Amino acid sequence: MLRITDLFARVEEKEILKGLNLTVKPGEVHAIMGPNGAGKSTLGNVLSGREGYEVTGGKVEFNGKDLFDLEIEERAREGLFLAFQYPVEIPGVSNMEFLKAAVDAKRKHKGDSELSAVEFMKVAREASKRVSLDQAFLKRGVNEGFSGGEKKRNEIMQMMLLEPSLCILDETDSGLDIDALQVVANGVNAMRSPERSFIVVTHYQRLLDYIVPDYVHVLANGKIVKTGDKSLALELEEKGYAWLEDEAV
Amino acid sequence: MSEQVEHLIKKEYAAGFHTNIVSETLPPGLNEDVIRFISAKKSEPEWLLDWRLKAYKAWQEMSEPTWAHVNYDEIDFQAVSYYSAPKSMDEKPKSLDEVDPELLRTYEKLGIPLHEQAALAGVAMDVVFDSVSVVTTFREKLLEAGVIFCSISEAVQKYPELIKKYLGSVVPQKDNFYAALNSAVFSDGSFVYIPKGVRCPMELSTYFRINEQNTGQFERTLIVAEEGSYVSYLEGCTAPMRDENQLHAAVVELVALDNAEIKYSTVQNWYPGNEEGKGGIYNFVTKRGVCHTNAKISWTQVETGSAVTWKYPSCVLRGDNSVGEFYSVALTNNYQQADTGTKMIHIGKNTRSTIISKGISAGKSSNAYRGLVRINPGAEGARNYTQCDSLLIGDKCGAHTFPYIESKNPTAVIEHEATTSKVSEDQMFLCQQRGLDAEKAVSMIVNGFCREVFKELPMEFAVEAGKLLEVSLEGSVG
């Protein structure tokens, strides 16, 4: 699915990732934890191709392709999905219109025909129900005036509709109350399958009570310094990150 | 994103072809003889010739306004031809079968079928080619309802009393430099009359086409809505791609009598000039409507064309409780310049006006909103709400807002909101991360920005406007 080898990347001249290695197999859920400024969000942005993130070394293979050969939208159509930490608003563009354009772009890429408005409406309603978003949100502008929790649920709804093969959740739990967290986690769990992988980036162990990972990695100083199973997350909760950061230097 | 956005601008102007047709075109130049020629050509009554000559005299003493936020080389008004008409129109065709097929093909290519059976359901159309009206569709059907829809030249012959009463009643001959010029040389345009209490059964539409080289188009539109009537009217316009600038100076007058409502929509797509800013139409237009008691006039405009646009569709809210609205999307790209907005003159009591202006600038263009809200001393309880939003694409364009507010009545409530934003990197990234290409992303974001205005357009045209925006923005990202 995803093989990251010796990845170096920088933002505005500052080296953030410094030789990161990570392999994700189909069906696996990997949690990435670490202190602030360790490069957790950078990883998701680099993988999805965001402007301003410069890759200076290493390579990433995604479903057999060199990820860095693909444009942002091509990566997305190939099945890479990034759930944003701070989803942006697009005033005046209805959620429905936006989602349909996204789904159609992906279908076209796969050689399928576009969905009719009626067909799409049906799947979109289904998805909104699954993340407990009222259907009225489909008609509103993309994230326009949504609360923090509504924005995150909207992200998960997009993920459901686009059926990506690799989902990267960038601190999706930040700013969520416990009810919203459960809705988000249920959405993710419902999507787990032998063909779909997840990278869950989080600062807190709390989310991992709901989305149980196969692996937990600690990212510090731009590389993965420790890997374990879900018990590692509990250990981190207890001890903090300082003892590992020392190791990384 | 700045890098992506650098590129805008590579789309061919689809309406840019030239129709090869034999025309009778006056040599360039303007003098009294030219005005007499135009008037004679249209067999006008004496009073109208005098009216034109008076306008011409006034024009000679006026000078070109320079206050607008636009720059262009001085126009040589003696280098413009003031009349051009297809030879085949010498004998006015009695039906579509008699119209030169080459002309019909022109409109077909523009996507405007003139045969009634092929026409957009529910839309009657008057088409103006250079200086003459070619055909007006659905006239009989409209006449059944008592609605008059014909070219203004024809109206002068058939309904002289109405023309005499209303022509120049809203925009006087000496109103401004371009209105005076238009009054002197106007050649054709549309006339609409809706009788008392009638709701016009169809959308009315005029399509303006400039074809001939070095020719100006000076059309005049007059719409009179009698008491309690309603009409929705739409105008569209295109021109061939030429390296020289061409002049378009129109006057539109609307009269909404007591309890009447006029909805006037424009989709303006004159040739904007090429990527280097060569060629394009100079669009200097005066549009104004008068609202009597309880009447309402609503202007909606989508402006994507022209090299220079100078245009302020306005409402004079003369009657008590009358309502004026202005919804505008103005998009400029490459080297286009637009100075556009509105004037809302509150005279009657409890008059209300709403102004929603959306300016989008891309490339190296300049886009200015200029608006005046004036509350006269007698306008007790007048209200105005103005919202001006500017959207910038790239970092070489400019957006400017010049709002003028004059209130002479302490009971008036005036609100003005203005925002300037950029198509943000985050918005682009979200769209692209969901699989949309950059161009689709920009057009979607821009369309969203304009939504409040598009929803005011008649349905068929709202879709067109969205597409037009997409085409005008093509190449804005790469």
Quick structural summary:
With 249 residues, chain A is α/β, with parallel strands linked by helices. Chain A is built from 10 helices and 12 strands.
Topology overview:
The complex is a heterodimer of chains A (249) and B (478).
Chain A: E1 2-11, E2 14-24, E3 29-33, H1 40-48, E4 53-62, E5 65-66, H2 72-77, E6 80-83, E7 90-94, H3 95-109, H4 117-130, H5 136-139, E8 141-142, H6 148-162, E9 166-170, H7 178-191, E10 197-201, H8 206-210, E11 215-220, E12 223-228, H9 230-239, H10 242-248
Helix pairs in contact in A: 4-6, 6-7
Chain B: H1 2-6, E1 8-9, E2 23-25, H2 32-41, H3 46-60, E3 84-86, H4 101-109, E4 123-129, E5 132-136, H5 139-144, E6 148-151, H6 152-158, H7 160-166, H8 177-185, E7 190-194, E8 203-209, E9 220-225, E10 230-238, E11 245-248, E12 251-256, E13 261-268, E14 280-291, E15 296-303, E16 308-311, E17 314-317, E18 323-332, E19 337-346, E20 352-361, E21 366-375, E22 383-392, E23 398-407, E24 413-422, H9 425-433, H10 438-449, H11 451-454, H12 459-473, E25 475-476
Parallel strand pairs in B: 4-8, 7-9, 8-10, 9-12, 10-13, 11-14, 12-14, 13-15, 14-16, 14-17, 15-18, 16-19, 17-19, 18-20, 19-21, 20-22, 21-23, 22-24
Antiparallel strand pairs in B: 1-25, 2-3, 4-5, 6-7
Helix pairs in contact in B: 2-3, 3-8, 6-7, 9-10, 10-12
Structure explained in plain terms:
The complex is a heterodimer of chains A (about 250) and B (about 475). Chain A has about 250 residues and is an alpha/beta fold. Chain A has helices at about 40-50, 70-75, 95-110, 115-130, 135-140, 150-160, 180-190, 205-210, 230-240, 240-249, and strands spanning about 1-10, 15-25, 30-35, 55-60, 65, 80-85, 90-95, 140, 165-170, 195-200, 215-220, 225-230. The relative contact order of chain A is 0.19. The model of chain A has no long low-confidence stretch (mean pLDDT about 90). Residues about 1-10 of chain B have low confidence and may be disordered. With about 475 residues, chain B is α/β, with parallel strands linked by helices. Helices cover about 25% and strands about 35% of the residues of chain B. In chain B, a hairpin with a 2-residue loop joins strand 4 (about 125-130) and strand 5 (about 130-135). Chain B has helices spanning about 1-5, 30-40, 45-60, 100-110, 140-145, 150-160, 160-165, 175-185, 425-435, 440-450, 450-455, 460-475; strands spanning about 10, 25, 85, 125-130, 130-135, 150, 190-195, 205-210, 220-225, 230-240, 245-250, 250-255, 260-270, 280-290, 295-305, 310, 315, 325-330, 335-345, 350-360, 365-375, 385-390, 400-405, 415-420, 475. Chain B has 12 helices and 25 strands. Chain B is globular and about 60 Å long. In chain B, strands 6, 7, 9, 11, 12, 14, 16, 17, 19, 21 and 23 form an 11-stranded mixed beta sheet that branches. Classes of the chains: A alpha/beta (about 250), B alpha/beta (about 475). The interface of A and B includes residues 72 and 142 of A.
